[in-house]
């Protein structure tokens, strides 16, 4: 299909339509014909120029759409161009319109939302075409903004591509300063003289741009002249005005202002979204030096910390924390100065580094501290208030204090300063916290007037409302458990009759049916003549302490029972282990082979393990030799050892080789036990051939001592017993000669915590090469010089060929 070289079939929106030159009625017919031809030629050339300009403006969008097709279709540049032309012809659209639609689908950004909003409201082809034109205009404006080198080029692109079709004739971009001032960054449609007059707007001057900055929302003014609100170009462009804040990460650093020459009727939501999308373009195109980041600048933070250290009041330094979409989610408490005192009683190191809403969740209340901090961070306008109520939640109790508060923004950080009202208020607040933390309620009874004073905490302990009459001390027995009557009586006699301080613990019965364990302390107060004038005291809720003591006693009993059970299990495991493998065993001789074994149990009974050894003559006259180590300790390790040791004996009677025996043992460990895992070495010695065949399952290989030199047998493959359901094992063999000694052992002989396994093996080989008069003494020498420190079981089997 042939490609179309025409990107847009109509001239750009917003340019006035052209009309042919007027021709006088009295003109000569030939002259009239020539003039008409000349006018038609000029009209045609001008149309071609406009088309070329439109094509140039949309070329970036077309090229970007080609790039999207290349990435999605995995095709070449030529194929992408052909696809774009073909799809545009099939859809009955220009390539520029189709390019904008493709970019919208790929980007899914704010401009895409505007186009979708128009399409959603479409009931005919005409609104759909309008949505396509809007997408083209906004994408063209975006392309121009991204290519702009300064703010002036940004506003020129916005007005030319996106705002003129809406009837707007002027646009300005204001940069918001750290003190909420406004500086004109770029303008179009206003005179240079007017722009010079409005170069800078100080803080506090009410303008449409400042109103959008302070309120952090779009401001639509139908008729600027009717309101009398000052702004740039108020005389040249007195009609409708709209100002939209622009920023990222909860921070506003620019305001977009658009003006119309005539009053602006109410605009549909789609138009409002267009303006907001343009403001978002401004936010991402302007270069703001102190734009906030996810992490505070070290230099700026260091300067602010130094400033906070000089303040006479408590201060916190907050830095914004952005979520995954770049929106403000919370503030991180970066620093608290030396005068900071946490309202909840926490130390500074527990507050610094925390998120503001996690440390003080009640700050998020409507009109509360969070709203003030967020506004200062967004606009840069300082906030100060006298006698502001600060509320903190501590153990489900909200505590309020009144303070003078100051909030200012410094680059990307926020400085929060407050001062409590006076020292008396601080002391009262401190006492309130102390009573709350100690669950203490205070009282005083005037013995002369009978007046009783309770604090709010005591009302809470009794479960009564603060408007109810307090309960006199002499009626305490009526509100306590009957079993505590004796203790209450002794307490009252000591205080009321003997006039001495006293205390008592009792169970308080509240009106709501809840019983609390309470300790009451009271003392008499004497006047100047030595006569008692009042009784002063306090109640303390010790329910938590009481139930903690009860739980602790139950835990002690349970612990003693558990220790007794563990000791019994360890005793049974030790008896089972010693019954099967006694620590000492007489040497044995079979044919031309001398066999000796050693077993050293763990020193601590609770570490009774699953190490085993075996040496037995089979019916086939071959000799079975094995050592192994079951994972775990106690009764489970001992019973696992018994299963595998007995299974190896029974399976060896079949006449199978070591590799097959090891594979069967793996099936036993995996399927016929409770998830037992173990390492093992198993060998079969044939007296006729003097050949030892052996297999291993994750165990250390045997050691051969020949002519006074010790060395490990070559390592063969074999996985841990019980690790997998089906495993195969390799088989090795060694031809023994006269006076050869073969050693099999468990890791309890060599393992150390402070050395590598290779180092321990080298130490074993050096010790095994020590000359000994017979096999028994060699095994004793190995156990004596074993430097293992894991306190694990040790099994050692040695054979010597005569």
UniProtKB/TrEMBL annotation:
Residues 42-103 form the ANTAR domain. PROSITE patterns: ANTAR, PAC. Residues 502-554 form the PAC domain. It holds the Pfam family SpoIIE. Keywords: Hydrolase, Transcription, Transcription regulation. InterPro entries: ANTAR, Bact_Sigma-Reg, GAF-like_dom_sf, PAS, PAS-assoc_C, PAS-like_dom_sf, PAS_fold_3, PPM-type-like_dom_sf. Residues 1-30 are annotated as: Disordered. It comes from the Bacteria. One of its GO terms (molecular function) is RNA binding. PANTHER family: STAGE II SPORULATION PROTEIN E, STAGE II SPORULATION PROTEIN E-RELATED. This is ANTAR domain-containing protein.
């Amino acid at each position: 299909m042939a490609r179309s070289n025409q990107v847009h079939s109509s001239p750009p929106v917003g340019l006035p339509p052209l009309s042919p030159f007027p021709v006088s009625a009295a003109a000569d017919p030939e002259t009239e014909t020539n003039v008409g031809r000349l006018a038609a030629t000029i009209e045609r050339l001008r149309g071609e120029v406009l088309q070329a300009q439109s094509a140039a403006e949309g070329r970036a969008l077309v090229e970007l759409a080609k790039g999207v097709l290349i990435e999605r279709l995995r095709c070449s540049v030529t194929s992408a161009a052909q696809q774009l032309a073909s799809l545009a012809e099939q859809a009955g659209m220009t390539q520029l319109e189709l390019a904008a639609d493709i970019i919208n689908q790929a980007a899914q950004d704010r401009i895409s939302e505007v186009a979708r909003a128009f399409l959603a409201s479409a009931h005919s082809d005409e609104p759909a075409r309008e949505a396509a034109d809007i997408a083209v205009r906004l994408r063209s404006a975006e392309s121009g903004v991204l290519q702009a080198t300064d703010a002036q080029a940004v506003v020129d692109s916005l007005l030319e591509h996106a705002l003129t079709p809406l009837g707007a004739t002027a646009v300005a971009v204001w940069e918001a300063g750290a003190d909420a001032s406004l500086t004109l960054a770029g303008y179009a449609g206003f005179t240079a003289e007017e722009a010079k007059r409005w170069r800078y707007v100080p803080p506090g001057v009410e303008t449409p741009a400042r109103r959008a900055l302070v309120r952090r929302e779009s401001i639509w003014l139908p008729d600027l002249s009717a309101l009398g609100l000052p702004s740039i170009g108020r005389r040249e462009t007195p009609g409708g005005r709209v100002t939209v804040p622009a920023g990222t990460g909860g921070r506003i650093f620019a305001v977009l202002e658009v003006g119309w020459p005539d009053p602006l009727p109410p605009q549909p939501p789609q138009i409002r979204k267009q303006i907001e999308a343009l403001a978002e373009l401004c936010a991402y195109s302007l270069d703001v030096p102190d734009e906030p980041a996810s992490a505070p600048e070290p230099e700026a933070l260091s300067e602010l910390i130094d400033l906070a250290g000089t303040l006479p009041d408590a201060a916190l330094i907050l830095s914004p924390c952005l979520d995954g979409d770049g929106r403000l989610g919370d503030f991180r408490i970066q620093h608290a100065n030396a005068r900071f005192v946490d309202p909840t009683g926490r130390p500074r190191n527990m507050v610094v580094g925390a998120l503001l809403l996690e440390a003080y969740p009640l700050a998020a209340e409507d009109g509360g501290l969070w709203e003030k901090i967020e506004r200062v961070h967004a606009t840069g306008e300082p906030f100060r208030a006298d006698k502001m109520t600060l509320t903190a939640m501590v153990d489900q109790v909200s505590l309020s204090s009144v303070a003078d508060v100051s909030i200012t923004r410094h680059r990307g950080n926020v400085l929060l300063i407050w001062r409590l009202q006076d020292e008396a208020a601080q002391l009262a607040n401190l006492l309130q916290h102390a009573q709350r933390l100690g669950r203490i309620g205070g009282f005083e009874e005037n013995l002369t007037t009978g007046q009783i004073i309770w604090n709010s905490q005591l009302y809470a302990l009794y479960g009564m409302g603060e408007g109810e009459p307090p309960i006199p001390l002499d009626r305490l027995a009526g509100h306590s458990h009957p079993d505590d009557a004796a203790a209450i009586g002794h307490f009252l006699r000591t205080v009321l009759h003997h006039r001495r301080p006293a205390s008592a613990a009792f169970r308080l019965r509240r009106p709501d049916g809840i019983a609390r364990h309470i300790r009451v302390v009271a003392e008499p107060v004497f006047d100047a003549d030595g006569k008692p004038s009042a009784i002063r005291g306090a109640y303390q809720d010790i329910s938590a302490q009481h139930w903690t003591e009860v739980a602790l006693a139950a835990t002690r009993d349970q612990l003693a029972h558990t220790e007794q059970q563990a000791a019994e299990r360890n005793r049974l495991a030790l008896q089972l282990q010693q019954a099967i493998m006694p620590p000492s065993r007489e040497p044995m001789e079979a044919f031309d082979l001398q066999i000796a074994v050693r077993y050293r149990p763990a020193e601590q009974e609770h570490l009774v393990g699953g190490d085993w050894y075996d040496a037995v003559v089979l019916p086939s006259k071959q000799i079975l030799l094995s050592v192994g180590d079951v994972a775990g300790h106690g009764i489970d390790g001992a019973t696992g050892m018994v299963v595998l040791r007995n299974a190896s004996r029974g399976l060896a009677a079949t006449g199978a080789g070591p590799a097959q025996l090891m594979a069967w043992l793996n099936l036993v460990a995996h399927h016929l036990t409770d998830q037992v895992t173990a390492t093992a070495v198993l060998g079969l010695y044939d007296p006729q051939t003097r050949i030892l065949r052996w297999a291993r399952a994750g165990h250390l290989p045997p050691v051969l001592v020949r002519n006074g030199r010790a060395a490990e047998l070559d390592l063969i493959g074999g996985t841990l017993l019980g690790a997998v359901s089906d495993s195969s094992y390799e088989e090795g063999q060694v031809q023994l000669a006269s006076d050869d000694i073969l050693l099999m052992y468990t890791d309890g002989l060599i393992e150390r915590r402070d050395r590598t396994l290779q180092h321990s093996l080298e130490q074993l080989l050096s010790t095994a090469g020590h000359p000994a008069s017979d096999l028994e003494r060699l095994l004793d020498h190995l156990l004596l010089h074993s430097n293992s420190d894991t306190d694990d079981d040790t099994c050692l089997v040695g054979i010597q060929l005569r």
